[in-house]
Amino acid sequence: MNLPANFPLKKVMITVVSVVIVIALIITGVTVAVNGKAANATVDVEQVSNISTQYWGDQSSTYGNATSDFVQELYPDKEKAISKIFVKEGDTVKIGDTLLQYDTTKLQLKVESKELEEKKKKYELEQAEKELTKLQNTAPHVEPVIPEPEPEPTPTPVPESQAELYTEITEHSKPFKGAGTEEDPYVFLCTEDAVLTKGFLLKLLGVTDPRATPTPTPTPTPTPSAEPTAQPSEVPTAAPQPTVTPEPTAEPTTAPTEAPTPAPIEPTEAPTVSGMAWFKQMTFTKTNETGGESVPTPEPDFTLPDGPFVARFEVHEQDNENLPLVKGWQMDGDKISAGFFNEVISEPDDIQMPDLSYADPGISYDTGGSMYTAEELQQMIADKKQQIQDLKLNVKQAAHDLEKAKLDLENATIKSTVNGVVKSLTDLDTAMSTSSPFLVVSGGDGFYITASLNESLLGKVHVGDTVMASSWENGQMYEAEIVQISDFPNDNSNYYYDGSSNPNSSTYQFTARIADADGLKNGMGLDITLKAASDNASNAIYLFKAYIRSDDGGKYVLKVGDDNRVHKTYIKTGKTIYNQYLEIKSDTLTEEDYVAFPYGTSAIDGAKANGMEENTDENDGIDARGLDA
After folding, report:
1. CA-to-CA separations, 224 to 195, 246, 250, 254, in angstroms, rounded
2. What is the DSSP annotation of 226-250?
3. Which helix (H) or strand (E) holds 99?
4. Given the DSSP bridges, would you call strands 420-425 and 439-443 parallel, antiparallel or unpaired?
């Protein structure tokens, strides 16, 4: 920019510097104010352990009955082989004593088989999900708009044929049109096996018939002498004859004699021609069958003119010249040529089919969606989704079977679940044939609970877990320890009534021993609560949701730092339990940490934590964060 010479540049510089200084002062003031507010602000804090909880898994409910004479019965299992039995009939056993040992080799093979089955089901599910994605990305076929068909015109009546149909074309055959020229040839209506006679061909070519009877002429006869040739004698004839001058010869000429009349040429057979017959024997006279002498043919009504000319021979549908041409040929007397002029319909090209020899017969291949309508695709997608749901159930069932096989392997050693006596011990074959237990242990001390649990809890509820039971009659609560879980499902699910469970799933009987059974009676009904622990549930922290806030960076808490001031700390969260607590999945927060309520005027980053001193006094020199004071 060009400024005038007298422009006050000094004033401009002063103005720019002043604006910059003002902006810097404003920013500094705001910063100081904010820092001062944070430095002077205090916020109450709470220890994480006081505002969090732990999650031990879902609770499930069932019911059972108390019994004072519990019996442990072991039935033979075809899938298990016993390697050793440690007791005999009449032995006294206590809870935890080993009764028998199953062969682990067969159980290990069963586990491996179930693992392969689970992998197979998962693969089938993955393939079905891929096929669903392919169907969802397939464009439907759009039907082309078909115009309304035009009404067929009233067929024009075909006029009757006016031409004569020939199977043999002679020099007396009459064409139904044409002038015999190359532009307008004679046209004959004929059949496919029509033949051309020699007389016609001679007319076509413009050649005179050489077999016609010639007029007799005198022939001079030489006189045998050395004298000059004498004058020929006259032969009386019906008509004057031309005079023939004999050629001079060394021999004496003789007197001329009358020339003999040439004999008629006998007809000969025309050669046989394969295909369409082009030639046929044709005589110009007929032989009298009785006298053997030739008689003249009756005079025809029409005779073709002498050629050469051009003729065309046509074969029409229904032998009618007004209908489409089937085939035809043409002959030119000047060129001696013939050529078919009917339209030749070429055969269709070979259809090129895609090579699918490499394709998997179990997989259907489409052509970009052009073969399915929108309705068909919607139905196929719905069917595929249903198939995926079924496959998901199959995967869950396979996982359940695998878990059960692993439990069988883990529980290959069978221990006593009661304090009692081995009442009976029979051989496996007898027990198998009578469907009775082969080993029975009868207990007589304490009370036991017999109830059932859902198959979904197998692997989550174990022998040794504690259950809570409440009596319907006396209202008391009892604590019991699970001592046995059956390997076989119940015949029905009447023992299980947890409304959140699938009514179509199987249930398994379990037995729990009550240590303090005051007030219980034999056969008394009990409500039972089971706790199914989830994976690493006890290690997770579930913080009260009110102490968690979020911004563009994610969820965070105001956590107390080493300087006893709160600072914004981002965290990773998981599931929500009891609608009030959120799982903390990151390692940035422990139960010993302190956090502030993240709402309010004093809940700012850098505020001083209030309440730390009280916790320091209570812990004898150790602050709430577990650090030396």
Report:
1. 56, 13, 10, 5
2. SSPPPPPPP---SS-----PPPP-S
3. strand 98-102
4. antiparallel
Strands 554-560 and 549-551: antiparallel
* H/E run at residue 120: helix 104-136
Strand residue runs (E) in 231-366: 286-287, 294-295, 310-316, 325-332, 337-340
Question: Of 347, 311, 343, 308, which Cα lies nearest the Cα of 327?
Answer: 343
Residue 420 contacts residue 442 (beta carbons within 8 Å): yes
- Confirm if 546 and 583 have CB atoms less than 8 A apart: no
Q: How far apart are CA 110 and CA 589, in angstroms?
A: 44
The residues with which 557 forms a beta bridge, in sequence order, are 569
Residues 591-601 have pLDDT tens digits of: 899 999 999 88
482 within 8 A of 453, measured Cβ to Cβ: no
pLDDT confidence of 255, banded at 50, 70, 90? very low
170 φ/ψ angles, rounded to the nearest 5 degrees: -115, -175
Name the residue with tokens 């000094």. 10
Residue 529 clears pLDDT 90, i.e. is over it:
no
CA dist., res. 612 & res. 623, Å (int): 7
Which residues lie across from 453 on neighbouring strands? 508
Cα angle, residue 144 at apex, residues 138 and 150 outer, rounded to 5°: 170
Q: Which helix (H) or strand (E) holds 420?
A: strand 420-425
CB 101 within 8 A of CB 83: yes
pLDDT score, position 159: 86
Amino acid identity at 563? D
Give the angle 24-26-31 at the CA atoms, nearest 5°: 95
Please report, for residues 215, 222, 256, 547, the alpha-carbon distance to residue 259 in angstroms, rounded to integers and kept in the order given: 11, 13, 9, 151
pLDDT for 432:
85
pLDDT in tens, 263-322: 443 444 434 433 334 433 333 334 444 444 545 556 678 888 888 999 999 999 999 988
CA distances from 480 to 71, 196, 323, 454 (A): 17, 120, 106, 18
pLDDT at residue 366 above 80?
Answer: no
pLDDT score, position 272: 41
